[in-house]
Amino acid sequence: MSLPDPPTTVQTDPESLPRNGSAVLEVRGLSKRYGDQVVLGGIDFEVLQGQIFGLLGPNGSGKTTTLNCALGLLHPTSGSVRILGQPSQHIYETRGRVAVVFDKPVLLPSHTISQNLKYGAHLRDQTGGCSASEVLKLVGLAGLEKRKAGQLSLGQMRRLSIALALAGNPELLVLDEPLAGLDPIGVREIMTLLARLRDEGLTLLVSSHRLFEMERLLTHAGVLIQGKLAAVGSLEELLGAAGRIRAEVDAPERALELAQQNSWEVLAQRGQELTLDSGTPAEEVNKALVQAGIGVKRLTPARSSLPDLFEQLVDAQEQEQ
Ligand code: ADP
User: Fold this and answer.
1) pLDDT tens digits for range 194-213
2) Are the beta carbons of 215 and 209 closer than 8 angstroms?
3) Alpha carbon of residue 292 to chain centroid
4) CA 168 – CA 122 distance, rounded (Å)
5) Domain residue ranges of the chain, discontinuous segments joined by +
6) Is the CB–ligand 1 distance for residue 76 below 6 Å?
7) What is this structure's pTM?
8) How far is the CA of 19 from the centre of ligand 1 (A)?
9) What is the CATH architecture assignment of 17-238?
10) Digit-coded pLDDT (tens) for 28-62
């Protein structure tokens, strides 16, 4: 087969495993301007090993610009990025430890799935990594080896792109809008695959505007609105699951007094149902209520949702302007 020029994916052979919990990506004061237009207004975040970090936000909020700066494909106006300990402009030093899947599949359309994988291995000068059959099984394309890439559905093309990325055995997989343009079945297949990679411990950095789906996948997120990171943290921190509970009790007035005594924040009361931010585990709140002689009918974590959080952040930003 005749080989065209390499596409702009970044992937080669692995060198060493990162330390548990070490920073895979560190973004500090990153800003990007085009003339007078501020596309990124100085953002800070980090992705630690094992996290599934989502860069979330509407179209035009700066997600792709952030990824491109992180991958050394775009020069920031100011700020710095370190990826696997290297400044992003030296990303080539991370040879093979970072793989990228762009929203538009970078494939050889008139070549088969097998040939695409062989070409990927050739580009990486690969001697190690996963076998073609292993990665095709992982992405659910086993049995389709002889199918031409150009004849695949968009969902299958994206899964093949992920297979190509995984074949190099990366430590960090970056995916730009992995759900863009997919029908519901394609979305489901990619979500299942990403959840499997998460469960296997791979570190993922994903950009997406699909908040509902991302909520089921991510461990951490940064929400970009108009080039500013409006919120960043673990999903528990962002959605308030830690310490936030909904309790249905038989004596709400006494429960309110107890909340005051314990400095629990009362977020809402509807009849016998109180929503509290206690800052303590739910079992401690339950114990305190029961010890005070208050009957607890139901006690559940009161988690917000990414779409709700997003709306609050947009409202807050509109009020600021
Ligand atoms: P997202 O990935 O969140 O959709 P992008 O990072 O692609 O957002 O774009 C953020 C903003 O930067 C958009 O307003 C876009 O028009 C602008 N932008 C991106 N690239 C350029 C460029 N080369 N020149 C001028 N503006 C650009």
Assistant:
1) 999 999 899 999 999 999 99
2) no
3) 43
4) 11
5) 17-238, 242-302
6) no
7) 0.79
8) 34
9) 3-Layer(aba) Sandwich (3.40)
10) 999 999 999 999 999 999 999 999 999 999 889 99
